[in-house]
Design goal:
alpha/beta; Rossmann fold; 9 helices; 6 strands
C-alpha cells in the first residue's frame, strides 16, 4: 500500500496535503483530540461545505468533498424526480463509495480529515425518492459496500429551519437548484432529523444553524470546533453562547 504522503490522491473532491501554518495557542489542544476523521452532515443548503472548509483550515486537515457536479443525472432529477431517481441515487452511491474506499486505502487516519458527507446518509435520499422495488435493489448494493468503509470518529449534524435552507440555496444560485421544491426539502429535512435522532454509530454533535452564523462570525466556528473535539461518546446538542 502506498502511503498518503507519498503521492497525490487520484479522485476529485479530496484535497492535497495542507500547507504548513503558524502554530496557535490552541494547537496542542486540537492535536490531542482523538477525533481524526470528522464528518459534517445535514440537508441541502445547511452549510456543510462551508463548515468543512473552516474546520479543515483551523486543523490543517485534509478536506473531502462530495463531487455532486459530476453526477450526469442530477439536473434531470430536479426536473423529474420519479423518472431519474434510481439513476441519480445509484451514481451517487457508487461515486461516494469509490471516493471513501480510496481514502481508506490511503491511510485515512495518518492525518486529520474533514468530510462534508457521511456515506450512510445516502440511504436517506434513497428512501425518499425510490419506489419499493428500486429501494430493495439499492439496499442490496448499499449493504454490500458499506462494511468496507471506515466510520468517522465524530459526525457534526447541522440543521436549520426550512426558510433558512431555501434562502441559502437561493443565495448560491446554482442553475439546477432554481425554484427548489419546498415540499421535497421539507421531507428531506424531516428525514435527516429522523435519521440522526436514532443515530448511534459514532459520536454525534447536533447544531441548529438557524440563528448560528458560521460565515460572518469566525468565533462561532471556533466554539463549535472546540465542542466537537472535546466531545466523547453519544450525542451532544450544541448550544452556542449568546453574542
Amino acid at each position: 500500500m502506498v502511503a498518503a504522503s507519498s503521492r497525490e490522491l487520484s479522485l476529485p473532491g479530496i484535497s492535497k496535503e495542507p500547507e504548513a501554518r503558524a502554530p496557535s495557542h490552541d494547537d496542542a489542544k486540537l492535536e490531542a483530540s482523538a477525533a481524526r476523521y470528522i464528518v459534517v452532515e445535514g440537508p441541502i443548503g445547511v452549510g456543510k461545505t462551508t463548515l468543512t472548509r473552516s474546520f479543515a483550515s483551523l486543523l490543517g486537515a485534509r478536506e473531502v468533498f462530495e463531487v455532486f457536479e459530476e453526477n450526469p443525472f442530477l439536473a434531470n432529477f430536479y426536473q423529474d424526480r420519479r423518472r431519474w431517481a434510481f439513476q441519480t441515487q445509484s451514481f451517487f452511491l457508487l461515486s461516494r463509495f469509490r471516493q471513501q474506499l480510496e481514502l481508506a486505502q490511503e491511510e485515512l487516519f495518518r492525518r486529520r480529515t474533514v468530510s462534508d458527507y457521511l456515506f450512510a446518509k445516502d440511504r436517506i435520499f434513497a428512501a425518499l425518492t425510490l419506489d419499493d422495488a428500486e429501494l430493495s435493489l439499492y439496499d442490496k448494493m448499499f449493504e454490500a459496500l458499506a462494511p468496507r468503509l471506515a466510520k468517522p470518529d465524530v459526525v457534526v449534524y447541522l440543521r436549520a429551519d426550512i426558510d433558512v435552507l431555501l434562502e441559502r440555496i437561493a443565495r448560491r444560485a446554482r442553475d439546477y437548484e432554481a425554484n427548489f421544491d419546498r415540499g421535497y426539502l421539507t421531507d428531506l429535512a424531516h428525514a435527516y432529523d429522523h435519521f440522526f435522532a436514532r443515530y448511534t454509530d459514532t459520536a454525534l454533535v447536533v447544531a441548529d444553524t438557524t440563528e448560528l452564523d458560521l460565515v460572518s462570525f469566525p468565533s462561532e466556528v471556533n466554539a463549535l470546533l472546540r465542542a466537537v473535539l472535546s466531545h466523547g461518546a453519544g450525542a451532544l446538542h450544541y448550544a452556542p453562547a449568546a453574542r
